[in-house]
From TrEMBL:
Binding site for 5-phospho-alpha-D-ribose 1-diphosphate: R79, R104, D131, P132, M133, L134, A135, T136, G137, G138, S139, D200
Tagged with keyword Nucleotide-binding: yes
Domain Phosphoribosyltransferase: 6-208
Descriptive protein name: Uracil phosphoribosyltransferase
Alphabetical UniProt keywords: Allosteric enzyme, Glycosyltransferase, GTP-binding, Magnesium, Nucleotide-binding, Transferase
Cofactor remark from the record: Binds 1 Mg(2+) ion per subunit. The magnesium is bound as Mg-PRPP.
Catalytic activity line of the entry: UMP + diphosphate = 5-phospho-alpha-D-ribose 1-diphosphate + uracil
Record InterPro entries: PRTase-like, PRTase_dom, Upp_B, UPRT, UPRTase/APRTase
Length: 209
């Protein structure tokens, strides 16, 4: 655990280019984030256990496989994490969804928690924390800590873009958490924004400023 995976699949990288583009409008941005989230979910779930079953085809019995019933929980960090949840749920519709509400104080860049609502059996679930941006790492760090405080044990973090600074914070504070990314960018600027990044993910998803 504590690994960092950057998905270099051509479809993910192609779509990420248009997500970054400042000329991409809200509707297309939202659709692209949804699609990349789905593609990332495909990669992230590669190690889910399966079990052998027999299925009756119209012709005969076929030895086959189904998911072995591992319980999953998706935990978007409000609000930008919401933009990635539906994409993941298209592939894992049975996953329960919890929410952690955090915003970054614009002066201190420190996260402020305002809402936590989680499935009541999170200790039994494989949890995927979802947020497009891992910048200073403060928000993801707090969200993961909020899950652990309530019994969460098996936690992964899924982001579109990370700064090395944020990755280091998570590796240090939560060495048990694997991190899945579409891109690792260069650095943070003086305002805690990822360079080159994509700007403010929440504003671009929801058309606010
Ligand atoms: C953004 C983003 C992350 C956080 C990342 O959210 O969606 O949650 O910043 O920054 P960090 O790693 O430095 O904590 P923001 O606070 O802008 O809130 P929003 O999702 O409501 O727009
Ligand atoms: N939050 C964002 O939405 N974008 C950044 O670059 C950093 C934090």
């Amino acid at each position: 655990m504590g690994n960092v995976f950057v998905f270099d699949h051509p479809l993910i990288q192609h779509k990420l280019t248009y997500i970054r583009d400042k000329n991409t409008g809200t509707k297309e941005f939202r659709e692209l984030v949804d699609e990349v989230a789905m593609l990332m979910a495909f990669e992230i779930t590669r190690d889910l256990p399966v079990k052998e079953v027999n299925v009756e085809t119209p012709v005969t019995t076929a030895p086959s496989k189904v998911l072995a019933g591992k319980k999953l929980g998706l935990v978007p960090i409000l609000r930008a994490g919401l933009g990635m949840v539906d994409g993941v749920r298209k592939l894992i519709p049975a996953a329960k969804v919890g929410h952690v509400g955090l915003y970054r104080d614009p002066e201190t860049f420190k996260p402020v928690e305002y809402y936590v609502k989680l499935p009541n059996d999170i200790e039994e679930r494989e949890l995927i924390v979802i947020d497009p941006m891992l910048a200073t790492g403060g928000s993801a760090n707090d969200a993961i800590a909020a899950l652990k405080k309530r019994g969460g044990k098996n936690i992964r973090l899924m982001c579109l873009i990370a700064a090395p600074e944020g990755v280091e914070v998570i590796k240090e504070a939560h060495p048990d958490v694997d991190i899945y990314l579409a891109a690792m960018d260069e650095r943070l600027d003086d305002h805690g924004y990822i360079i080159p990044g994509l700007g403010d993910a929440g504003d671009r998803l929801f058309g606010t400023k």
